[in-house]
């Protein structure tokens, strides 16, 4: 890749002569190991020495074997492990000046002046205090004769970069913290399981989830499972909530629903800051309604298990970005945290984030709950608004009368999250006063007249269903446009919401981990788009991923085999190679399998697996449920706005004759953007059904770097220290995208 004037490449940054220490502190979170792995490998890659600090700040204070130099191989097979393999501990000693003095001495002895801290706001605040005291601590060490003046001058500045590891997503300044998505997976797995037994026995379940000071897990899991009621600390229920909740539960049962789900954050409070416990909620339901009610407290199961693909990718990106930030820092650079905004990595001043996080708690303590929600950020605020919109139906008398008919249909291949999007669109449309219609089997069903009105209750329980309950086919509308127009006239349809496409690697890696010197060749779906292979490769720690967007030849294949062979000879390694199904018509999965098998003889053996349609199956993830719900709600609100703008009262018709009356809604960099379909013509490769420019291609070098390949990495988007309040996009309410 040639360097150009408007791009910056990390090859210009050298870590030679630098020492970086990485530690995990506070509560553990799934994905911490992926972050540690990325810091270690990126640090070694740029020529720095990297050290593990075992047991968090306690290990830094105690020194000795708690601070060990890391090697490339020492983080192998770490990516898919939950918790933190280098340990974490609450440390009282580090809170004392004497403890921090010992820690400084231990770091200086090893020449460490760069610290990467993975933890929550308390851990990061402690790191910043350590940095501020650093020069004074060194002066004390000189005075006590523990280090000489030369060492004090040589190691005069301590550089700090933080990554937020917290399942609660309670840190201001980032869309998602490491561990949150995995915790949501654990919660939704439990909720989905409980729903079956609750339905069998007509029970009400009260689920308590973590979140002592932050209701993110409770709120998003309520959105993702369609819970009947949710209680969170940032927005306590209005006085009299008990009666309203019971009325809603009773109405659901009267509507033939056999179960109720109530989700309670462990820190839920009422308007007077008094705790609302799950047991209290259960007793209310039993006493007032007589429903058979059970309480399930999820507890630490939310911290356990393997990290999700999202958390592995997030942590890997953050780890690489943290090393880049340390390489670019100067004595005057404030301590920063690396975080995610939309699909971009950003750097923010650590203490600005900490102070805003503390302001949230202060606002709650002072009963300024609306302000607390706003301080949490646009993502949290939008989640709350969307939940209220979908969970609480307004009486018919309070609904606006729009006289518009809106149809919803699915097209293309089925995708997890489609049903959540349809449910959201239908309920938001009804709330806007529209009459909603469902079209079965995509455009084929449209021209055949498979159209019927769909009501609020009809989409109950759709959120967690996989596939497409409306049915979807790949039929394109062009051949049947006249018949479709006829059906639109028949049903007086004023607007269409089309949900669809352009018209599992982890378990295999775990299998390989149980075997020495084995390489798996995996074929993924995606048509001509290499996103699944590339991002799946980053999440699973693949050695190579072959895609259509990056042409390759026999020399590249041979180079990859040789590289893998060298790695296998030097240590116990397991290999993973991914191939997008249409990456090359000649270099098929069978060909690559046979090539690797032949060239790897005596060093490793091979297995192959074609994942096929299992990639489309199963229940949607919490991310897909939440993202589908929010993006469909936003789309329906946009449709309502456009219908009102285009309606001509004089003739009683909608005139949609401008470019922006047909738009695609998607994420661009940090924002959800409505882009006119007409404008997409110049940006789309219609032959291969992919965009001409793919943002995720910038992530591919990360996979190669972490697999020990020498490559170029464009860091043009990195390096700018932003501020928490400023530079936040108006539409950044979108949940972070992979």
List the helices and strands and how they pair.
Layout: E1 19-24, H1 32-45, E2 49-53, H2 56-62, E3 67-69, H3 97-109, E4 114-119, H4 121-143, H5 149-154, E5 159-164, H6 180-201, E6 204-209, H7 216-225, E7 229-231, H8 241-254, E8 260-265, H9 278-289, E9 293-297, H10 309-328, E10 336-341, E11 344-349, H11 350-365, H12 369-376, H13 378-391, E12 405-411, H14 418-431, E13 435-439, H15 442-447, E14 451-453, H16 481-490, E15 495-500, H17 505-513, E16 518-524, H18 531-540, E17 544-546, H19 554-570, E18 575-580, H20 589-599, E19 605-610, H21 622-646, E20 647-648, E21 653-654, E22 663-668, E23 671-676, E24 684-685, E25 690-691, H22 700-706
